[in-house]
Write a structure and sequence with these properties.
Two copies of one chain form a homodimer. In chain A, 29% of the residues lie in helices and 23% in strands. The first copy, chain A, is an alpha/beta fold and 387 residues long. Chain A has two domains: 2-20 and 260-382, Lyase, Ornithine Decarboxylase, Chain A, domain 1, CATH 2.40.37.20; 26-248, TIM Barrel, CATH 3.20.20. The two termini of chain A are 22 Å apart. Residues 1-7 of chain A have low confidence and may be disordered.
């Protein structure tokens, strides 16, 4: 709130008004180093997904350079990152004709190489027509449906793939390559299954690239990625670049999958104990679903973390203490059902950190990150939201 | 996105970039008239909860006057509404000592009568001490737990109630009254059960007011409310004011409870069809959980609406067409499982309106309302988010 302008730009932890969003810088940077090292060893480029953080301060610490490359999920992100110097972006949500004018404006205003994705003849024709009309060869990736979870051309549908490729390559647009996202990997947790998902994602993309090339079409880029498959991949032969986003912060869903450890989770919501319901074994905190998000992703995993796992002010998790339920601005904290853990005796005004189920969803509830070095607030990084 | 500055301030519907948030003004105003008339007939004051809309434009159309009264759930809302002329507010989340300085600053900067709520001796003592130290008699409501769903003093705990009352009345703070919120009513759907919940909410508050008065303590205000109980109440004898928020927009959860009809829902997310997965019977739209929120409140009701019910561009619902699943910026639209409905043949670029599960959660994903008169955009009302 703006009454906090009476604070220094970087206030001590105790002076932060709750709820607010903490980013543990050491964990974040370790997560980034781990992924970058892993992908370098696999010999592929890295195109981080910037939708998780929506912050240029974060992006600059994750990308190869201040100019990118990066991936975005909205035109608002595209414009923000382009305005902040990122020059190589993929807008990785299926393009529609109505979005070509604003996308073209971002490309020309900022001189950004922004590619789009599509999975139909209709989209390819519209893109080609727009490119011809505006004298801008917009690069496009053909989206491949590697695991049936959402969008894309089925990898076995060579006819459609080639038809789209011919329209892009033969007209005024540009065929940049193929792209897939193994979103189905979020449902896994066994390392062997995750490696198999990474292999399947790679194979779908590489096979489609071969089909295009065999038809005489160019396919310079073969883009794959999700945090679980990027983490578990051990052979990305034929792939040129990997996209992933949530790895940079980690979260409880990724910990449940095995893509990170609980100790890697860099994001938490700082909250204050505002009440006790001792007869019920509850603490009430001032972080409800508005702060934590409504994401209940761990509800489908073997360890259900409620609306989040509760740690002390320094970030050490209490045994089995979770947010059992949430209203808009209230979190109901208690011991995980079935565990024998005791409710810690936290007085009114005590501060806790709550690890989120899903970093992308929780971060989106806030306008900035309070950047932490241990228990010291060392910086504030703004982020964008909306469209 | 800011490239839309090339549009008129109020663009035609076709020029809105999707996803965006539509507010049907006629439905909104009808919902407000209905609630105001109902509460006037019951002889109680109305203190609408402003957390649903977080918009002064909305608030001014719901409150008795531009000065209030109103209810807020965060200090950010308190400051925003106070800065916009609202002078009579309750911050209806348990107060902690750390929040008294910013709260006091809002009170004195804007000359607002802002009351707090609390349910413990410790909070009452802290408030009394702060009031004495700052020469500000902060008014407080004792929160009553009328249905066991969250916070408050148990209505049968007269000893605690009186102990808190004595501290507030005997010290430098002010005992304003009692307040309760029957949040458990959200789990109901039978009108008789809802009327019983409204009676129980009233009885808990009125009983506690009597206990305080019998102990020689003042209790001028008896504040109750939730959208379901406010809607179904038929006797509020002893109650002085009602709080409710979501009624103004309505949503699918409230329709499932019976607090509104589907035709009363004033809020929707405008989205664009960005892809087809015909073999699976899916349409892909550009409103995922970031736009719709992760709220799955209808998942616990007899009719599960997925992530939202899909209507055409004019607001007419397609039979049994729902958002089956959602990723960050993708909604997967299909026919409700088990229904015999057909998938409407919506082409790429077609626009749909998606009715939300929970108005408070969905609205919070946006920075403004596109105000609609039928299919014409007639205004834009900004809203706040965050803390």
């Amino acid at each position: 709130m703006s009454t906090s302008v009476s604070f220094d730009p970087v206030p001590p932890l105790r002076q932060l008004q709750t709820p607010c969003l903490l980013l543990d810088q050491a964990r974040f940077e370790r997560n980034v180093r781990r992924m970058r090292t892993h992908l370098a060893q696999l010999g592929v480029s890295f195109r981080p997904h910037l939708k998780t953080a929506k912050s240029i301060e974060v992006a600059r610490r994750v990308m190869d350079s201040a100019a990118g490359p990066g991936t975005v999920s909205t035109l608002r992100e595209a414009e923000y990152f382009a305005a902040n110097g990122v020059r190589d972006l993929i807008y990785a949500v299926g393009i529609v004709p109505e979005k070509l004018d604003p996308l073209g404006a971002i490309r020309s205003t900022h001189g950004a190489d922004m590619a789009v994705i599509l999975d139909s003849v209709e989209q390819a024709e519209a893109l080609s027509a727009w490119s011809a009309a505006h004298g801008q060869a917009v690069p496009a990736f053909i989206e491949i449906d590697s695991d049936g979870h959402r969008s894309g051309v089925a990898p076995e549908d060579a006819e459609l793939l080639i038809a789209i490729g011919r329209i892009l390559d033969g007209g005024a647009a540009e065929l940049r390559g193929v792209l897939t996202h193994a979103g189905g990997s979020y449902a896994l947790h066994d390392p062997a299954d995750l490696r198999a998902a990474a292999d399947a994602e790679r194979d779908a993309a590489v096979t489609c690239a071969r089909v295009l090339r065999a038809a005489g079409l160019p396919c310079p880029a073969v883009s794959v990625g999700s945090t679980p498959t990027a983490t578990f991949a051990d052979d990305l032969g034929g792939v040129t670049e990997v996209r992933a986003g949530v790895f940079m912060f980690g979260d409880l869903v990724q910990a449940g999958i095995g893509s990170c450890a609980e100790e890697d989770i860099a994001l938490s919501v700082l909250a204050t104990v505002i009440g006790h319901q001792s007869a019920k074994g509850w603490l009430i905190v001032d972080a409800g679903w508005m702060a934590l998000s409504r994401d209940r992703g761990t509800g489908r995993q073997s360890v259900d973390q409620g609306y989040g796992l509760v740690c002390d002010e320094t970030g050490r998790a209490y045994p089995d203490l979770v947010v059992l339920d949430a209203n808009q601005e209230h979190g109901i904290v208690g011991v995980r059902p079935g565990s024998g853990a005791a409710l810690p005796p936290l007085p009114l005004g005590a501060r806790v950190r709550i690890l989120p189920n899903h970093a992308c969803a929780t971060a989106a509830q806030f306008g900035r990150y309070e950047v932490m070095d241990g228990t010291a607030v060392v910086d504030r990084w703004p982020r964008i939201n909306g469209w």
